[in-house]
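Lecture 7 notes: from sequence to structure.
We start with the chain below.
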Amino acid sequence: MSCSRSWWWSCLVSALIACGEADPLPDAGLEADATVAVDLGVAADAGVDDLGANDLGPGDLGTTNPDAEPRIVEFSPCRFLAGQDDPRPECGRMQVPLHWDQPLGRSIEVFVKRVPATAPAGRSLWILTGGPGQSGIGGESIARVLTAEDPGLTVYLPDHRGTGSSSRLYCRAGESLTSPGGRQVTEAEWPACRESLVAEWGDGLAGFSTTGAARDVEAWIEATRTPGESVFVLGVSYGTYLANRYLQVAPDQATGVIFDAVCPPGGCFLADQDINEDDVAQQFFAICATDPTCSARLGPDPWAKFGEVKERLANGHCRMGLGSAQNNADNLRALSGVMMMNAVIRRALPAVIHRMDRCSAADRSAIAHLYGALFSPPPEGAFDPYAGWSWALGINIMSSELWSPIPLDRATMEARWAQTRSCRGVSRQAWWQVDGWPRYQEPLAGQFAETNLPLLILNADLDPATRIELARPYGQHYTGPHQHFVEISSSSHGTIGQGPLRGNQSNTCGRVLLHQFLEDPEGELDTSCVAETIPTGFTLSATTTRALFGTTNLWE
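Predicted structure tokens for the same chain:
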């Protein structure tokens, strides 16, 4: 079972939102359990060790020529993914240089979808999604929400170069639905995939960089901005890394920039993703130890109970028909890692450990239902925020900018993964993808952008993908006027999309702060919503419990 393309909870959350109000819960439990999917990508940043024989040479700094003819972009009507009935979206395409420092060289086509404002307010928002590797489709659900809440806002959803409809890098054979891994490229398929792309693009792979994508955003804004329009850029997860690069190449273009789920330059490492996720899960289970409901089931040391149950699974306890006993234990690790990415769904994780420990017939049925709810393929026509994903683009950027400052061999990566109880296995999988991929040199990596623009920087305290300890340097670096760093408790990966409020569980503190910032980026920021975020708990509504477990009782 593969968990690295975790599209699942966007669909599940959409279903929960459609259900409306659910049963009320004690102790500030979630009545609607409503969240908005923003991004499940992972982000990291590091310097690059010796590039060796795979060196593609210098990356693409490029410049935007102020004397160049304006780029003309024509938009035409198009639809949200899965044929959503919405007449607003429009799509546009633009030719840009593959290498911005070679404006007369090879060009590629980049794509953007926009949702025009329905009221004249003169504000636009560019959403940079995560990965690296995700297309603009990953921002469609939040675009619907934001434009409904603010009719004066135009939202742009660019496909990062190399993804979606922006000259996507992909392996035709390895990503065929009839190939062994389906759309996901397996380890056995990867060498042929890599070699086919190297043969097709050669040194041109260096053009599919974060800097190239940042220059694309700059060019898009220049081509579409109307006189007097306020333009904002929002980066989520890897999108924050891209937003920082955008500010490096265009420090004064935007009106303001928002970072949500932060990866600071030189401060986080994708090779550490598995152990980072495990550490945050341990913090979460420490909260379980202080909760009467949770500790009554898992005892005074819930994290130790987790480890005990995982070991018992590896020895043959509670076989779920998912392969070998070791596969059963590995699936629990991945299941936990996926659940930790969502602040609502992770509330059920201790109950999973409790049920696997007890392993009654009812527990086995509930756990099987959970696996089906979270990992079944999307039905035909369902919203999939990972459509247009590019494995190759992600690895191209990871290997050159986002991996590790020290050499790491397979044995080290396997040992790191083996010591974890809760992670999606992102580092473990990325190692064999990064290994052997040709690298470019990126002179802008590892540096904060220098800008005086208004900034809003958001991160959750229990974000397993972009840990709060890695985000805090942003708050320490950006201390200028109208530059805000806000920690939001009890959320997870993406505070705009999750972490519901006590008084309005369909809203989040991240979204409250975002709208404040868009309306007045130089105004006083009211952060009182932080205290109104529903704290981490271990109860769920009957509606959500039924969706996850097929029963209305979370624990029994």
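Points to note: The longest strand covers residues 107-115. The domain at 57-170+209-270+444-530 is CATH 3.40.50.1820 (Rossmann fold).
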